[in-house]
């Protein structure tokens, strides 16, 4: 959809615009969300752990880990840390563009499209703040909600304009991120004993979430990836992956090569196979984060490539199970916190102070498998995830006055649920 395309006309009397129907879903985004929710579990779980020892080492893992813990730390740093969030930011941009395209095809004018997506973003922000207060200070929904509001300015821009903003946003966010790392390195390190009481811990979680939201707004952390997701949606790489199979594979291979050269030194340091100086460690962390954006795109393209290969196997039990999670990514993400927080937090059973990262990784896999079981059960019952239903109702709760004058058929993919990461 380009900036000069007609979108719709306003008529009277205007009937209400219904939420886009879930016709067919693209396999690639749901496959990616389903698998990356495992990555999110592995990345988030060690944030619940705490240590009374020196935790200022590279990667800020709890002190006193075993050799197995160090191995798990290194693998997580190489494959997961700061990779899943960019990947889901890209998918978030894809979801926004897909929703905008479908609403336009049903006759909605640009103001109406922006109003719907703005309402959805505000509710996502609210979901994130409640999630932070109740369970997890590392919530990503609130920053995504704020980023979604910013991204409304890009939805109807030309392709050239989007690429310019992507480049400018990447430079600005990288420079700002570098400044944050240099100025607040000590403040961002893993702390010691967390608050023991639940009420006191709520304040800590809200402060952590608020800090992340401020960074997302002020530093445009996720905007470049969201813009990239909008570009991918327009190009059809995820809705028609079989038409772009070669390019998807090429991008995935390039991303893996970049990850090996740019991220391996950091991962080896996190795994305690070598110990860089403080200054070199800071440089490696910056390279680690920057290469995470490349690998996030690589993961998107990898799952797009797999979707092109498996497009006739979407009913295979394993593929169906993973995509069931992807279709209910918001519910699955929140369900992870429902299980993690009471088990690991100091106000709960306090396992976060007694287990290492290897045991935590096993717990994360078990939690993800539980969300798979829940998603499969809902899928077999023909039901959406409860939080997807709630967000959908809140988004489309008001009547909008637009009638259909579609300029092109609706895309095959249904609106993506709120991606997380």
Automatic annotation (TrEMBL):
* Residue ranges of every copy of the DUF418 domain listed in the record: 232-397
* Keyword Magnesium applies: no
InterPro entries referenced in this protein's UniProt entry, alphabetically: Bact_Transport_Assoc, DUF418
Which chain regions cross the lipid bilayer?
Answer: 31-49, 87-105, 140-155, 162-184, 211-232, 252-274, 286-310, 330-349, 355-378
Q: Where is this region: Disordered?
A: 1-24
Q: Name the keywords, alphabetized.
A: Membrane, Transmembrane, Transmembrane helix
Pfam families for this protein = DUF418
Q: Record's superkingdom?
A: Bacteria
**What protein name does the entry list?**
DUF418 domain-containing protein
Q: What organism does the record attribute this protein to?
A: Cellulomonas fimi (strain ATCC 484 / DSM 20113 / JCM 1341 / CCUG 24087 / LMG 16345 / NBRC 15513 / NCIMB 8980 / NCTC 7547 / NRS-133)
